[in-house]
Amino acid sequence: AFVILGGDGTLSEVVNGFHEQGEILSPDLTIGVIPTGGANDFARNLNIPLDAAAGCQKILAGQTTVIDLPFVSYGQVTKYYICDAGFGLISEAISKMNEASGQKHGILTYMILVLKTLFGYQNKPVRYFIDDQVIDLNTKLLECTAGVNFVGFNIYPEAKMDDNRFELTIF
After folding, report:
1. What is the rounded average pLDDT for all residues in the chain?
2. Spatial contact of 134 and 127, defined as CB atoms under 8 Å apart
């Protein structure tokens, strides 16, 4: 078992670190999370207390949940995503937030960066393969999520992190 003190990005780095080291990601691997990140979507999706002391109590009580662990492959690279994977506007805003080191990151910071990024953002040409169809679209954002919360907002109320399904938004 591992306990992580951090947010969604830290959790993602740990899970992908296991994968990159050839470790098997299985239901037998237990990861406890004490959320200290900006949006803490993973914690919100699983009702993990945002208060560190309450989070520790939940870990010590042995309360666990088995979740889906989706992944994205491109070329020779495979990356697991814990809550969501985004492309376009979303990933550019997150990149800008990561570049703003030393600043307090949170939902408000993220939303401001999304709005700043929105102006002047150029759609990207994307080819989608869906079933037997090939669709070419100029895409502002693509968001694939397994959970209810996205950037702290309850966007996908029917989503569950353990039903082998995900929500897809293309804009």
Report:
1. 83
2. yes
Distance CA 52, CA 49 (A): 7
Q: β-strands 2-6, 31-35: how paired?
A: parallel
On the question of pLDDT at 102 being above 60, the answer is no
CA dihedral angle for residue 104, residue 55, residue 60, residue 26, rounded to 10 degrees: -70
The residue written with tokens 């993602």 in the block is 12
- The CA distance from 76 to 143, in Å, is 22
What DSSP designation does 164 have?
Answer: S
Q: What is the value of pTM for the model shown?
A: 0.80
Please tell me the distance from the alpha carbon of residue 34 to that of residue 105, in angstroms, as a whole number: 17
DSSP bridge pairs for 63 = none
User: Is residue 133 predicted with pLDDT exceeding 80?
Assistant: yes
The torsion angles phi and psi of 16, rounded to 5 degrees, stand at -70, -30
Q: What is the pLDDT of residues 10-20, one digit of tens each?
A: 999 999 998 88
- pLDDT number for residue 49: 92
Mode of pairing for the β-strands spanning 141-145 and 167-170: antiparallel
d(CA 40, CA 80): 17
